[in-house]
Amino acid sequence: MTSAIVWIIPILFIIISGLFIVKQQTVVIVERFGKFQSTRQSGLNLKVPLVDRIAGRISLRIQQLDVIVETKTKDDVFVHLKISVQFLVQRNHVYDAFYKLQNPHEQITAFIFDVVRAEVPKMILDDVFVKKEEIALAIQRDLKEAMLNYGYDIIKALVTDIDPDENVKIAMNRINAAEREKVAAQHEGDAQRILIVERAKAEAESKRLQGKGIADQRREIARGLEESVDVLNRAGINSQEASALIVITQHYDTLQSIGSDTNSNLILLPNNPNAASSMLNDMVTSLVAANKINESSSTAKKSKK
Length: 305
Prior knowledge:
Blueprint lengths: L1 H16 L1 E4 L3 E7 L2 E6 L2 E4 L5 E8 L3 E10 L5 E12 L4 H6 L4 H16 L5 H6 L1 H16 L4 E13 L1 H69 L4 H21 L15 H30 L1
Antiparallel strand pairs: 1-4, 2-3, 2-5, 6-7, 7-8
Helix pairs in contact: 3-5, 6-7, 7-8
C-alpha cells in the first residue's frame, strides 16, 4: 500500500504539471524539445509533461507605446514630440510576432524615430503644430506597412505633445502678444475713424436741416409780408407806405425783444417820424446798387470771353 502511494503521487504530479490555464485574449506558445509545437487559446489546456514546455505568452489586447522623439525643424528649432502608438498582435500571426522579433517595442520605437526625423525637418515650427495630424498619419502608414510582416497591426498613431525649447516658447508668446496688440490697435483706429465719420455725417445733416429750417422760416416771413402788404393796399395804403409801416413795426418788435433780456446789447436807431421811410429807402438804394454792380460784373466777363 505504501509503495503504491509512492508511485501514485509522482504520477499525479506529472499529470497535473501537464495542465495549464490560458487567460482571455492571451495566446500561449508551446514548444516540444525546443521546437515550435502549437499555440493554445484561452481556457484549460494540456501539454505533454516533461516533453512540452510553455515558451511564452502573447497578449492579443491593444497595447500602447509612448515614445519621445527629439528632432530639428526646417527653421533650426529643436523640438520634442511625444508619439503614442496603439498596436496589437494579429491572432493569425502569433508565430511571426513571437519568433521574428526579439524586442517589438524597440523595433517600433526605431521606426517612429525614422519617420519623425524624416518628416519634421521638412517643416517650420509653426507647421509642425498645424500639421501634426499629417505627421501622425505618416507614422501610422509607414509603421503599419513595416510591422505587418512581423504579425503586428498598427491601430492608431497620435502626436500627443509638441514641446519646443523654453526660450522658443517665450519668443512665440511675445510674437503672439504683439500681433494681438497690433490687431487691437487697428480695431481701435477703425472705431475712431467710424466715430469721426458718423459725427461729420450727423453735423452735416444737422446743418442741412438747420438751413432748411431757416429757408422755410424766411419763406414764411416773406409770405407773411406779402399778405400784410396786400391787406394794407386793400385799406388804401400804397406799397411804399405799407413797407415803411411793416419795417417800423418790426423795428419796435425788435426793441421789445431786446428789452426783455437784461444781458442784451441795445442798438438805438433813428426814431423820428421819417426813420422808417429813410431806412427803407436806404435798403432799396443798397439793393439797387448791388444789382447794378452784379450786372456790370457779368457784362465785363461776357466781353472778355
